[in-house]
Amino acid sequence: MAEVMVAMSGGVDSSVAAALMVEAGHSVTGVTLKLRTGPSGEAPTQGCCTASDALDARRVADALRIPYYVFDVTEGFDRSVVQPFVESYLNGHTPNPCVECNRHVKFSLLLGRSQALGMDLLVTGHHARLRVGPDGRRHLLRAVDGPKDQSYVLHMLGQRELWRSAFPVGELTKARVRETAVELGLRTAAKPESQDACFLGPGGVAALLKREAGARLRPGAVVDQAGRVVGRHDGSVFTIGQRRGVGVAAGRRVYVTEIRAAEAIVVVGDEDRLWRRRLRLGDVSWVSGRPPRGRVDVQVRAHGATAPGLFENDEVRLEEPLRAPAPGQSAVFYQGEEMLGGGVIAQALS
Amino acid sequence: MAYLDHAAATPILPEALEEMARVASSHFANPSGVHRGARAARARLEEAREEIALSLGVGPHDVVFTSGGTESDNMALAGAPAGRRVVSAVEHKAVLQGAPSATVVPVDNSGVLDLDGLRAALGADVAVVSVMTANNEVGALQPVAEALEMVRRHAPGALFHTDAVQAFGYVELPPADLVTITSHKLGGPRGIGALVVRPGVALEPLVRGGSQEEGRRAGTEDVAAAAGFAVAATRARRERPAEALRLDALAGRLAASVSDIARRNGPVEPASRLPTICHLTVDGCRSEDLLVLLDRFGVSASAGSACASGAVEPSHVLGAMSMSEQEARASLRFSLGWTSTEADVDAAACALRRSVEVLHG
């Protein structure tokens, strides 16, 4: 029996994760993280992880008869997730805030606090599977439910985090998770999944950037592969591979192939220009603590195709190109079902 | 289990609960009706009102029943005539949010109103001044008699309101124009309070839609709750002066037994603070974490106020006392009441010590 802290977002996955831990006979404490402050200083009412979601989490904790608390981590979340998210976009990158939240908030800040409070394990509702290998180390595998697999956003975790974590719902299909919630009478059983990054309101990324850095968004030129100006953009953000909103009347489909943020230039080209074979990475880490040997399958977005390749010296060479890997996204490595680790894409080269 | 959060809520007095249950059943009729049942309910309501008026030293026509202290504060601030509001920096949020563009008068580092600051804030355009009798966070007694006199002299057209929710029974109340009290802090039921409105004071009603409470507050009166409230108010008036000595000693005992790991906030002199509150700062710890561990050890205390999500927000009172945010987030409040014993205080001290040890790993 262990002292277990479950991070409860108010969603069905973390609700069932808590239930499974209780069923397994552990001493469970539920915690919701207050991540953002609304204009009046209260928790926000739009987006995910709102005051209303906290109430849902609280009621699940009540149903499971476990203690429940809300931790205010707004300062750490803003510093480690929101501000870097804004900076990343301003640099022409496409960040994955869930990666940074897991890295800095959930599996660093919260993990540390749970330990200080005497907890043995931090549990989340992530879809991923933990195993102990013959090497005595912890291994992270894709979830049972492939389309729901979230091992991608857990790529920064290492042995230190994994020996103190558990991901119980990764062993279940999403359908089974919902069934379990219904069986337990949890009010979150039919709750729809949040779609966007949790801190984005109805205006999405555009509204956030306008609010946090409006003065720094500059209009500029849209150029073709040869550098000829073919249009203008109004300073809104783009992502590699984007087709819509590129302000070009070219008569055929063009895509964003490059973003030169310092010059406020967006480069467009045909679809075939999006495919990349080499990725330079930063913030690289490995679950086992050691880089992989041999061929790996590389995934460059949260839910996307993989391509085989080799890793060496913070660089990946792909045997087959991948479509539009965007700097700021993570490149995560797999061998079979096992997620080995990865890094953040700094550059994507042909 | 040791309960030290009486400033938030205190157990209902068995006699108040019994009276409520009796009256809820026997006097269910609507007091506004014509028939005998209605008249009996009305009579029971007025009896309760008279008892509460007596406990306050005011006339029965001066007592308006509301849904509690928050509504009473809102009613006073919003219902007063148009004109500038002046409030202390440590008022309850119900006052601060009831008067969003008020002039805010600072307090000193122990949470006591700066009278010079009040003087400077007064003028002919002031319509309401609100200064609580005693602060709920750190227990600082406010100089309400002096403040009232100052208002009479330098803003003679203004109404003086005092939130006496925590102070009732422990402190003599000033002859203010408007006084807020609430039942559940006295050991009465929740969901009922009162606003004392002195003769001649005109207030716009906050809750409209009926002529109850002499046209001052609409809504079918909760006769049973008023009966319970009256039992609690009468008892508080009678017992609290003596209880004050006992509770002050307990609060002091708690502070002394953790003085090596925590420092006490609020005024130092017992005569300047409520006997019921022991507000501490535990350097090097987060009160969010302390409350979790104290809860695990069966000790109930609090810190600041709850945000809609349930997260603890440090009290604005601490900022007004020039405490840094870090110190404010390391602070928590233990508060005592009619059921408090030495065992509670000793358990709290022991649990706080253990909690600090756990956090320091």
Please give a structural write-up.
The complex is a heterodimer of chains A (350) and B (361). Chain A is built from 7 helices and 17 strands. With 350 residues, chain A is α/β, with parallel strands linked by helices. The longest helix of chain A has 20 residues, at 97-116. Chain B is built from 11 helices and 14 strands. Chain B has helices spanning 14-26, 36-56, 69-79, 93-96, 115-121, 144-154, 223-257, 287-296, 316-320, 325-328, 342-359; strands spanning 2-3, 63-66, 84-88, 103-105, 126-130, 159-163, 178-182, 193-197, 263-264, 277-281, 299-300, 305-306, 312-313, 331-335. The mean pLDDT of chain B is 97.
Major pleated sheet of chain A:
6 strands, antiparallel, barrel
Q: Whole-number average pLDDT of chain B?
A: 97
Number of helices of chain A: 7
Radius of gyration of chain A: 21 Å
The percentage helix of chain A is 10-25%
For the largest beta sheet of chain A, what order do the strands appear in spatially? 12-15-14-13-16-17
Q: Which segments of chain A are poorly predicted (pLDDT under 50) over 5 or more consecutive residues?
A: none
The residue-averaged pLDDT of chain A reads 93
The biggest beta sheet of chain B is recorded as: 7 strands, mixed
DSSP strand count of chain B = 14
Report the end-to-end length of chain B measured between terminal Cα atoms.
24 Å
Coarse shape of chain B = globular
**SSE series of chain B:** EHHEHEHEHEHEEEHEEHEEEHHEH
The low-confidence parts of chain B are none
Order of helices and strands of chain A: EHEHEHHEEEHEHHEEEEEEEEEE
How many distinct beta strands of chain A? Answer: 17
Query: Given the C-alpha coordinates, what overall shape of chain A results?
Result: globular
Bin the helical content of chain B. Answer: 25-40%
